[in-house]
Amino acid sequence: MLIRPPADILPSEITSQALFLQRRRLLQSLGAGAALAGLGQDLWAAPEGRPTLGPLSASPYSSQEKTTPLASVTSYNNFYEFGSAKEDPARQAPGRLKTHPWSVAVEGEVKHPRVYDIDSLLKLAPLEERIYRLRCVEGWSMVIPWVGFPLAELIRRVEPTGNAKYVEFVTLADPAQMPGVRSPLLEWPYVEGLRLDEARHPLTLLAVGLYGEVLPAQNGAPIRLVVPWKYGFKSAKSIVRIRFVAEQPRTTWVKAGPSEYGFYSNVNPAVDHPRWSQATERRIGEFRKRPTLPFNGYAEQVADLYRGMDLRRFF
Ligand code: MTE
Q1: 52 CB near ligand 1 (under 6 Å)
Q2: Which of 179, 200, 210, 309 has its CA 20 to 30 A from that of 295?
Q3: What is the residue with the minimal CA distance to atom 23 of ligand 1?
Q4: pLDDT tens digits, 26-78
Q5: E strands along the chain, which residues?
């Protein structure tokens, strides 16, 4: 159905990892710590390139694997609001998606509901670089150096009530900016959800950047979710509303194909997608497939969340 089987990226489309490391060294030598000082309109309206974010602390949760080149991370995307082909978001989102001003309403079963503007979210907690694997249900994967802060930091501030059991993430659906929203391909807005304990887990990130810079539009600017042990579609892009609720949210992909995309969507090589195996994956930039790891390699950190659950039933 809608999510397609994998296609490959040509090695010629991939730029060198050395560029990233070179730029990182340059930033360090310049004292990138100053970069966030003048947050606000200027950060988003930079005339050349995307502004850098900093200072960034390194995270013990980071993968040690080789990161996927920036050119691939930003040109091979799923963001159906900008079309369903992998190259559509890079072609259509930059310039169209207006990411400033931007606000995120945090509401529902919380003691302190609040509308945060993006500038205050950028300052909410220290920004970290988190190198995470992202595994798409289609069978491809990447390793991405995200910049963000744990969602738990936000949750702590709004204080969920005893009724909050799940968190729903609602993303922008503006047909004026997003040509894909005019098509009935999916039900808009794109909605995802997590159980409250999954949302609070220290691995769960609200990302505002990647490769040390503000998020590119096609990767879900200005703020998106990253849940590294779940299939990529759980990582909702361009979030405008975070709602704490008592009932399990009806999420976009569950509505689109309940037998194909479950609510939990934990990466599980033992549970096939009905139309293809999930046992292996192709890391973008590599030719040979590699085995997919349970929970995308994060089992040690997250398996406890699902103790006693039948993960074939709750897929
Ligand atoms: N978020 C929104 N709003 N719309 C989408 O279509 N696609 C999801 C997820 N978040 C999607 C979304 C899917 S299927 C994947 S695999 C990841 O974003 C891809 O993230 P990336 O393009 O930054 O790698």
Answers
A1: no
A2: 210
A3: 219
A4: 444 333 333 443 344 445 544 457 899 989 999 999 999 999 999 999 999 99
A5: 57-58, 103-108, 114-117, 128-135, 140-150, 166-171, 191-195, 205-210, 213-214, 224-226, 239-245, 280-283, 290-291
